[in-house]
Amino acid sequence: MNKRRLEVAAGLPEGKMLDRAFEMGSRVGPKTFALFTRMALVAASLTVPFARPLSAQTSAQLRALSNQQVASGVEATTVPVSVPAGLAYDAVGNLYIAAMNDQVIRKVDLNGIITTVVGTGEQGFGGDGGAALSAQLDSPAGIAIDGSGNLYIADSHNHRIREVVNGVISTIAGTGTAGFSGDGAAATSAQLNLPTAVSVDASGNLYIADTNNQRIRKVVAGTITTVAGTGEQIYSGDGGPALLAGLDSPNGVAADTLVAGKFYIGDTHNQRVRQVDASGIISTLAGTGTKAFSGDGSSGVGAGLARPRGLAVDTSGRILIADSDNNRVRLLANGTIATIAGDGEQTFAGDTGLAIDAALDTPRTTAVSNSGLIALTDTNNQRVRGITLSGAIATLAGIAPSSTESLVLSGVTSTVYGSGSLTATFNYGSATATGTVTLLDGTTAAGTATFSSNTATFSLATLTAGQHTLTASYAGDTNNPAIVSGVYLVTVTPLAIVATANPVSILYGQPIPTLTGTLTGVLPADTANVTAVFATTATQGSQTGLYPITVSLTGSAAPNYSVSLVTGGQSGPDGVTIAPASSRTVLTTSNASPAYSVSTTLTATVTASTSGTATGTVQFLNGATVLGTSALNAGGVATLPVSTLPLGVNSVTAVYSGDTNLTTSTSASVTETVTPFALVATANPVSVLYGQPIPALTGTLTGVAQADAANVTAVFATTATQGARSGVYPITVTLTGSAAANYTVSLSGTPAVTIAAAGSRTVLASSNASIVFSTPITLTATVTSLTSGTPTGTVQFLNGTTVLGTVAVNAGGVATLVVSTLPIGVNALTAVYAGDTNFATSASTAIAETVGSSDFSFNLATGGNGTQTVTPGLSATFPFTVAPTLATFPQAVTFTVSGLPPGATYTLSPASIAAGAGSTAMTLTVQTSNLAGKLAPAPMPRRHGWPAVALGLLLLPFGTRRFRRLSRRFSRRGLMLVWMVFGLAAAGALSGCGAGGFFNQQQQSYNIVVTATSGSISHTASVTLTVQ
C-alpha cells in the first residue's frame, strides 16, 4: 500500500497525516494519540515500505554479515549499518546515511537499494581531489545535502568538513589538526575540533557544530566565522548576542527553512535546543537545562530533554529533535513539544507499528524529506528507521545479528603466493553440514571444498598477490539453512624468485649493448606468463662508473612474484662498467702581441676520442707559472682572459685535467709578446684663497693593471706655494713605484692650481646705541681675513645710503669715525670695506642707532579732578600723565612738589621714571595734617576762642586728685548728673559761636605745584587742594 493509500484509508487529506498526528499527540497526550493512530492503521490494513519478510537463506546470510564490512547494491534492510550517526535527504527523496564505524557514507534509493557513495571503509584520511569512493574517512558523524545535490560530511575525527561534488571529494574546512583558529580567513586554513553535525541553508551557507570548540561556525563563500558560542563550556547568554553565549558540546545544528540567517542548535550537555535569530540573538526553544523527560503537549521551554543531539527542520519550519537519552524523537511546532517516536524504552521494538509505541536505543539524529517522510538513526540498534506520513515506523536500513547459526573462516591471514589454506567451520546446534561450500573472493568463486565433520579446507594457491576479502558461502542442505560467513581478510605476498644478469664493460661514449640474464624459481604454471626484463640507468651519454643492473618482471603472472638480482653469477654490485676515453686539447689566443696589462683571451678546446663532450677544467700556464683555471662549457671549451703577462716573450700552454669520462691532455704552446702600456693621468684642479696653504695635489691614474695597483703611483706637483700671489699655476705628473717601468704616462688636459682673493668680514660697533640729538658717538669698523693675513684699504661709513665718511684701516684692520650729526629717530648704520689686492670687499650687518629728543609733556591726566576739598587728616589723589616726545625718555625723569598745606605729606607713584621708559601714568597723593595743623594757618578772632577754653576749665576739676576723693562721697547717679550739667554748659558755649569751618574755622585753599625734570628740561603742573 502506498503513502496516499495510507492517508486516505485513515480518513485524512493527502499530505496532512503528520500535522494531524502531532496535533492529536499534543492535545490529548501520547496514549490517546496512539489509540487514534492505531485505529487509522487498522482501517488501512497498513503495510510499511522496506519492511519485508526474509527467506531462511537470506536471514542466514544477514546474520553472517552482521558487524562486517557490507556490500553495495542490495536491499538496505539486508545489510548491517554500524553506528548510523548522520542522515540527509536529497531533493528527490534518496536517503544518505553516515555509518560512523563503517567509515562510509551510504545511499538508500527510492527502491530501498543501498549503495556506498563515499569511503573505502578504511579508517583514516586520504583521497582529496579524487573519487569519493576511494577516499578515507574517520568517524563521519553528520551529513547535509544542498539544493544542487552536493554532499557535506562532518569527518569528525579528521577534524574536517568534506564536500562531494559530482563524485569528487575535497576538504572545504579544517586543517586536520584539532584546535580552534582561522575565523575571518579561508575555512581550509581554520582549525576545528570534533565537528559532529553540518547543515546547509537555502543560499548554500554551511553551518558546523564545532563540538569540542563549544561553537557553531559558518562558512560563506569559503570564509569561516563563529556565529554562536564563546568557546567556554557553560550555559549562558540567552537574550543576548549568540557570540557571547556559552554552549556545552553542541551535537546538532539546523538552518531554518523559512527565515534566512536563522538556525537552531542541539546544545547537548546543556539539555536544551536553542535558536539564533537572523539578528544574531540567542534564546532557548526547548529544555529546562535538567536532564529529564517531561512536557509533551506543552511549551517546549518547560519540557525536559536528555542530551538532545541531531535536529531537522521541515518545510513548515517545525523542528525535529533527537532526544537521545530519552530514546525518543520529538517535534517542536509553534512553541509546543510532543513525542512522535519512541516510548522511552532503551531497546528495539515496534517496527510496522506506531512510531510512538516503538522502542529506540539512543537516536542520534533525524532528517525529513520534502514530502514529509521522517528518518531517524536508531544508533545503538544499528538501524535507520523511518516514520511514514501516517505515523508508522519501519526499518529503512540495517539488520541485527543472530547467534543461532554460524559459518566461520579461520586459518592464515597472510601467505605467500602459491601456498596457504583456510578452514570453514559450520555450526548450527548439533546439525552436521553436508555437501560443498564455496570460497568467494568478493563475488568471484575462488574454490570449493567438501564438508567433513562440519569443516572444509580451501587451498589458497590460486589467489593472486594482494589483499583478498573472502567469504564462505554454504547453500545449505535438507537440515541446514544457507549461510554466508563473515568477511575474512587474507593478504597474499608475492613469491620470491632470483634473476641473474650478465655484466657489461664499455668506454665512455659507446652505446650500451642489450642486457641479458636468466630467471629461476617461477612456478611451472606461470613460466609462459613471467619474463625478466634487465635494465640499467646507463646510457651512451652516461658518466664513467659502475651502473647497477636492475630487473623487473612482465607478464600476466608478474604481480605474484618479487624478484632479486645477482650479476655475473655472484651476488653483488656488478653491472654496466663505463671506463674513461682519451682526450685532445688545442690552445688559441685572441692577441699574440698585447700591451702590458691589456687583456688577452686564451681559448682551450677539448674533444673526446669517442663521442660525448668533455667536462671539467683547463689549467693555463706561462711556462711553469699558473695563469688560471677555467671550467669547460657545454661545448667542451674553456676560456681565460689574461692581463698579467710580463713584458717580453711568453710561452703559454693549456692542460686539460680530465674528468670522470676522459683522460688528461696538454696543448701545444702559444707565444705571447707583451709591450709597455701607456697610462693617462687626470689631475684634480685646485682652487685656494690667498693665504691658504696649497693642499696635497691628487688625481687618478687610468689603465694600471690590478696586480700593479700597489706598485705604480702618480705624483702630481706645482710651483705654487702658500706665499704666492693670486694667479694660475700649472700641475705636472710623474710615475713612481716598482712597476712604473711597465708604463708610460701623459697628463689629461691642463690642470692647474688657482689662487683667488680671500674673503673678508667687517663688523661695525657704536659707542652708544641710544643718544640725544647732537650727542657725538664713535663708530668702529673691524675688518678681518677669512683665511690669514690682515686686510688693507678703506672703510666707508653709511647711514642708510648717506655717506657719513671714509676712513683708512689701521695696521690692525680697524677704522673709526666720530659722528654727531645723526638725525632724530632710528638710524641704520653700516660699514663697507673696499677690499684690496688679496682680500675681497665686505659689508657689515646694519646696526640701529636711536637719536631722541629730550623734551616731554607733563599734564593732569584726562578726566582727573584738579581741584579737590578734604577735611583735616584726610588725603586727596591727583592723576598725571608724563609722555616723552619720542617713544621713550632719553634720560630719567624726577619730580618735586611745593605748596603743600602745613603739616601735610605727599606720595608720588612712581617716584621717578627710568630712561628708556615710555608714556607713564603718575599719581600724587597729599595727606593733610590733624586739627592743630588745620588751625594754625588761619586763626580766627579772639572772642570766638573762649568757649573752648571754658569747656577745658570745666573739665579740669574732673582730673584732679581732690575730685576723685570727692567722687567717692557721691553716688554714681549724682556724679553723672553733675557731668551732664557741665557738658550742657560747654555745648551751649560752643553752639553759641558763629558759622564757619571745622570747629568754626575758615576753610583754606592751597596751590600745589609738581615739577618734572629730565636732563636740562623741566615742566610743571598745578592742582588746588582746599582744606575745611
Automatic annotation (TrEMBL):
Protein name, per record: NHL repeat-containing protein
Membrane-spanning parts: 975-999
Organism taxonomic ancestry: Bacteria, Pseudomonadati, Acidobacteriota, Terriglobia, Terriglobales
InterPro entries per the UniProt record, alphabetical: 6-blade_b-propeller_TolB-like, Big_3_5, Ig-like_fold, MBG_2, NHL_repeat, TEN_NHL
Gene3D superfamilies per UniProt: Immunoglobulins, TolB, C-terminal domain
Domain MBG, chain residue ranges per copy: 499-568, 679-747
NHL repeat placement: 136-161, 297-335
Domain of life: Bacteria
Record-annotated Teneurin NHL domain positions: 125-175
Residues annotated as domain Bacterial Ig-like: 413-493, 587-675, 765-851
Keywords from the named record: Membrane, Repeat, Transmembrane, Transmembrane helix
